[in-house]
Structures are given as C-alpha cells and as structure tokens.
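Q: Joint fold for the lines below.
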Amino acid sequence: MTTKCWDTRARNRAERLARAASFTAGRIVSSEHIVALLEAVIEPGDRVCIEGNNQKQADFLARSLVKTDPARVRELHLVQSVLALPEHIDLIERGQVSLIDFSFSGPQANRLARLVESGKITIGAIHTYLELFARYFVDLTPRVALIAAQAADRDGNLYTGPNTEDTPAIVEATAFKGGIVIAQVNEIVDKLPRVDIPADWVNFVIQAPTPHYIEPLFTRDPALITEIQVLMGMIAIKGLYAEYGITRLNHGIGFDTAAIELLLPTYAADLGLKGKICTHWALNPHPTLIPAIEAGFVESVHSFGSEVGMERYTAARPDIFFVGQDGSMRSNRAFCQAAGHYACDLFIGSTLQIDLQGNSSTATKGRIAGFGGAPNMGADARGRRHASPAWLRAGREGRGNIAMPRGQKLVVQIVETFREHMQPTFVERLDAWDLAATANMELPPVMIYGEDLTHIITEEGIANLLMCTTPQEREQAIRGVAGYTPVGMARDLRMVANLRDRGIIRRPEDLGIRKRDATRDLLAARSIKDLVHISGGLYDPPKQFRNW
Amino acid sequence: MEQFTLTLPSSTLPQDIIHTAICGVVSSGNLEVLVEPTATRNACEIVVNTSAHGFRDIWEAVLKDFAERHSVGGLRLSINDAGATPAVVSLRLDQAFETCAA
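A: Joint structure:
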C-alpha cells in the first residue's frame, strides 16, 4: 500500500525556495536579482497574480516578469483584478501566458480585445472584484503573488499605506495555500508606522528602483462638470435621495455622481437634507466629496483604495475615514466591496449602453474593459437580512404587497441620452452581444442586469422601473427617458403620458426643479483649486490636475 | 454650417411679460440662444445655425417638443449652435424661456 502524501504544495514551495537560495539571504533581495528570482520560483503553468489593482500597481515586478526567459516562465495563468499596465499585455504577446482571469482592463481594453480575437489568449472569465477574490479561496488560488507595498522593515513586515486595496486578499490566499509572495516596496525602514501584512506571510521583499505607480482614478475636475450633469444631480437628490431617505450609499466614478457630491452642501442643504441623506458611504476618498465632508454632511466613509493627493486630508479626518493608530488611512477592496453589496441601500453609476430591458454594459466593439466592482454594488443583495426604510420602500414598490415583507436595493443608472459624438446611450441591442460572439464568451459582458436596475435618471427625468407592472410598461418607461435617441423617439406617447400620470416617469418640472437653477454656480466647488481651498490646504492634487 | 428656419404653432405668451434674453455661449458642445418678441402671435419662429450636419430630424423633434411644452407664441428664437447635444439644446431653450418670461 502506498502512503498518500498530504503536503505536496508545501514541499514544492520548499523546492522553489531552495532554488532561490543561492542569491537570496533572508527575505530582503537586491533588485538586480529580481529576474533570476522570478525564474527560480515560477514554474510552467503556474497561477500568478501580478498585483494590479484599480489604483496601486506592482509595476517593477511586472516589468521584471517581462524580462524573464519565455522558455522557463511560460503557460502562466494570470489571476488578478486589473490588467492595467502595458507589461501585463506584453507578457501575453510574448507568449508567456495561456489563460487570464480578471475583473477590469480599462486602460488595455483595445489591446486585449485584439489578442483575444487573434486567438493569442483565452479569457477564463471576467469577474467582479469580490467574485475574483472569492475564487482565490476556492479554485483560482495564486501559486505566486507579486505584490506592492509602501515599505518593509528588515524582517519583511509590510506597510501598505492608504492604498492597501487588494493586498490582504491576495496575500492571504497565496501564503496559506503553499504559494510564494514577493513584494516590491518603495523603501526599507527600521520601523514601520504599522504592519499591514505580517512578515511570515511574505517570502521575498525587493526595494524597487522607483516608487510603485498609483493611478489617480477617482479625481474628477469640477471645472469639467456640465450643466446637464448639474440638472441630473438635482433630479437624483430631490427625486431619489430625498424621496427614499438614502443614508447609506456608493457612488460610481463618473462626472455625473461627482456633480451630486458637489451639490450636497448647496442644493441638498437648501432642501433641508443635511443629516437626512448621504451620511454613510462605501467610497474611495473622492476629492469632490471634500465640500460635503467639510459641511458636516458625511459621518463615515470606508474605502476600496485611496486616492493620490488625499493622504493628508484623510489622515486629518479620522472621524470620517478608517485610519490606523499610526495616523494613516487603511483601505481594503474586499471588505469595501462587501460593504457596498450588503450595507448600502443605493448604488448609482453611469454606463455606456442601456437596452430596452434595462441591461447595461460598458463593453463596446473592439474593447474588452471588464467590470471592476460595479456589478456587486449594482445588484440586489439577495442574502441581505437587515431592514432599512429605503430598502423596505423599494421592496414594496417592486414586489407589491406580497405576504412576506422583503426589501430591495436601489440600483440607479445616471446617464445622458447621448454620449460624445452623438452616440446614443439607449440601444435596441447591446454591443456586448457582438463582443461575446467575437471573443467566444459564454456570457455577454453585462455590467448591471435589467432585473437589478430600479431607476434610470437622464436629463429628461427619472424612470422608476420598480413600479412598472408589465414588461411593456418597463420598456416604455425606459423609452420615456431616452430623449431624442432612436429608442426614445420610438416611444408610445400615450403610454408614456400614462406612466407620467402615475409617477413612474417624473420630469424635472414634476419634481419642482427649475432648469434655470441648473447652472455651475450651484456646485460647491468649481475647480480643483476650490477643492484644495475648501480642504484647508490638506488636499494635494496630482500634477496633471494643477492648472494654476 | 447648416441653417434653417422653423415656424411652430404654440400658445401665445402675453407680450408684456417678455424680456429679450440671451442664454449660453457658442463653445464646443454648447450653444447660444437669443429670444425676442415678434408680431406673429400664434407661432414661434426659430432660426437655427448649427456647425453639425445631418441632424435636422432631431432638431425638429427637440424644437417641436419645446413649442408644445411652453407657450412661446410671439417669440423669435435665434440659435447659434456649436455641436450641442439634444440635452443641452433643450436645457438652454428652457432656461432662455424661464429667463425671458420670468
């Protein structure tokens, strides 16, 4: 009888570490040995995570991986939330990757689509962040994780700083399942401000020649907010936030929601809504939220990541943000995604296309951009078991008076009816179908399914899809706010008038909104400089946003 | 440039409350609209100068809705457009109307 071996992964890890022993002494490795280290510890077919977050990037390790010998480092299965850097795609072009599972690829969407169409790479699936992290602990556990931190001490403990992001989830999955964790750090110090990742979860630490890159993804210049966005923001505040009493929410990344943030201390305050709406957030530290925080609108913000330039501001507002005893913020994408899914009553965001069933997608021909976190925010949490007035009201509107009381999350798309170059936002058929066909995907990449969508806001008003009783009504409610797009022009005027009489469609005038008031003067800040001033000089915007 | 004039039936706006008004600016994606009283009392005359070609159907739909939404008989609107979306056109027209009839 043969004896079953139960620690093959641990033995294999020991072999990998032994191969690296000739040029490593302890955890700290010199950057000149990085390529040799990667070739020593990575085996063909490995599942590898190159920490590529929404914001923070393990860029030095990605650049180094592209320098490895393709005969040795090959057939990799990349499992990482974001394909953001050119090197991520270079690695595929060099033929070193056979499969990718990811969440978001915005910056590389065009190159990725071309590689998929030419058959150079296979996509396992495009996930939401939370979904991919979940699979790290089930069937997509990384064998090697290449991560980024702000600093290490000489033992190998890591300090991530405010951009903790995905690091805890990646490291936990890798380190506890026989994997190897390699961290690039900006500096090695004697004593860390705090320990975000303990040293015995980390195998190697390399001081990178340059600090890791962080993308200022959530900075929206108030100077670029249009009056249409101001109008839609007024509609959202008066027609939705006030109506349902939304206190716990998540905002998307676009200018439409930035406009709402900047209307809180002005328009919403004038409506007497301070303390009644928008008190608790799952949100990155958006610079455009500064005026609302300073005006006392906001009680709490937990963040997925940080935002470049917001470090001193968040540190100085520990009552609002999650700040360590060392005095700097800690973010955590996995926890914040869970918070956005389960603990928020409303998600509002923008999209590129909405069809007649209310399905929405950011996929367009020739671009595989992925989802990020929006589908988790923008989906009813079927497992939710705690009540709130907003959630219960949405449940009553959507489910009618059924015997078992149950709520529903408010999931809102806020869009202009036309995008730039007169591209209609409302379409009969999503481009996602064509993309799925050319890229051989089992599912068209839909960001938010129509069954989860509760409201659409456009410059024409709000459509409340919860209150529609038939699929025909729902379609006409969508057409009824679709403006002068072909979908909007094909509306049934009589049905739309009926929906308006029943309050399912509400125009700005139905809400008592004067369009004359929809000017940029209503924004609490009209420039990045205003934000700096309102923050008392604590906000330090990145160079590309300094135009004075 | 494309130029056309539409005369749309609309309920009469009392002349004595009309002020001449100008709204918006001619910058990319935006437009300016000048509102003045005219002698034709039961219709609104709209002159459109636009930098974008091929959108006359949409212009007519936007302007027809505007003339139905408000009593604008007796007004002449002159629009100088630099590629504004229908959303911006409607907003500017409504703002101009609210201003001139305030």
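Q: Anything notable?
A: The radius of gyration of chain B is 12 Å. Chain B touches chain A at residues 52, 55, 58, 61-62, 85-88, 90-91, 94-95, 98-99, 102 (CB under 8 Å).
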